[in-house]
Write a structure and sequence with these properties.
This protein has helices at 2-23, 25-33, 38-56, 58-62, 71-94, 97-104, 107-118, 125-142, 155-176, 182-204, 215-241, 244-250, 253-266, 272-288. By secondary structure, the protein is mainly α. It has one domain (34-61, 73-298). Helix 7 runs parallel beside helix 9 (155-176).
Length: 299
């Protein structure tokens, strides 16, 4: 009973974060329509979150040991989170929201594999069942009669798939890294996304001059940056205290929010084939919560 009560706060934290990301595609699409491309809006919003973090967490940064033997985990958390967030935002801007999110939520499949390697979580028969069901669902969604193999056929699909892989790896690394506090892990994420976003913007030549951005757009960017700052702390708290396979299931709440939002805000609907594949992926995610394993971190 005591364990369940202790889990209420991190579970609530994950639900709040999931709800936000279920509607986050809408303001990013508004920014795209206003001339701020996805690479640039990602860079600006996470840079704002980074600046807030530098101000509020200066004590943790000042006492941080850069020669810490676990510092490599912060580096990889930043890199993987940067790639995951960039792929996610570009996917939801340019692709169909639910298709992108469902492919992104193949993450339980990748989580099982990464958790086995990095956390020594044993993969039993239920784990193989989850993997098979996830892949079957993805293949059902992606299969086209004219193609021999069900590969992603659009930019949004590729972003959803690759983003989910990086998201799963980042979650497992956050869980593995018990040497650093939530503030430092959040700083690593904001810095990683900012640097990768800046590099992508530079390569695509999509970073606008500050003077060219209107006041309304700046207000939207600032609001998103502040929201991302707050939600990063909330999510890191949840991911640090909940096992990786359970956390990804709780985050499924994002799909419910996104399905409602995309229908009413973008008039997007799914085909029967996409519904069938999506339900398989969701079922696999739910099954992943019941996988039994020894959690070496909690021992």
């Amino acid at each position: 009973m005591l364990t369940k009560q202790k889990n209420i706060v991190p579970i609530t934290a994950l639900l709040i974060g999931a709800a936000f990301w279920g509607v986050a595609w809408y303001p990013f699409r508004l920014l795209e329509l206003s001339g701020i491309r996805g690479e640039a809006s990602t860079t600006f919003t996470y840079f704002i979150a980074l600046l807030i973090g530098l101000v509020l967490f200066h004590k943790q940064i000042r006492t941080f040991n850069f020669w810490d033997k676990a510092v490599y985990l912060l580096v990889w958390i930043g890199v993987c989170s940067g790639l995951a967030n960039m792929a996610y935002i570009l996917g939801i801007i340019h692709g169909e929201v639910m298709r992108v999110l469902l492919l992104f939520y193949l993450a339980p499949l990748w989580t099982i594999l990464f958790a086995r390697v990095l956390l020594s979580e044993k993969l039993g028969l239920p784990g193989y069942w989850v993997a098979l069901l996830s892949l079957t669902g993805a293949m059902t969604m992606l299969w086209q009669p004219e193609n021999d193999f069900p590969f992603p056929t659009s930019f949004g699909d590729w972003m959803g798939l690759s983003g989910g892989i990086m998201f799963a790896l980042a979650n497992v690394l956050v869980r593995k890294n018990q040497a650093h506090n939530i503030q430092l892990k959040s700083m690593a994420i904001w810095l990683g996304v900012t640097l990768i976003g800046f590099f992508a913007s530079w390569k695509m030549e999509s970073l606008p001059f500050i003077s060219d951005i209107s006041t309304d757009i700046w207000l939207l960017l600032l609001a998103l940056g502040l929201t991302i700052f707050l939600l990063s702390i909330i999510l890191q708290y949840g991911l640090t205290h909940i096992p990786a396979n359970q956390a990804i299931v709780i985050m499924l709440f994002e799909l419910i929010v996104a399905a409602i939002a995309s229908y009413f805000l973008a008039n997007e609907t799914m085909t029967p084939k996409e519904w069938i594949g999506g339900l398989m992926i969701i079922s696999a995610t739910l099954f992943s919560a019941h996988i039994s394993y020894e959690d070496p971190i909690s021992q």
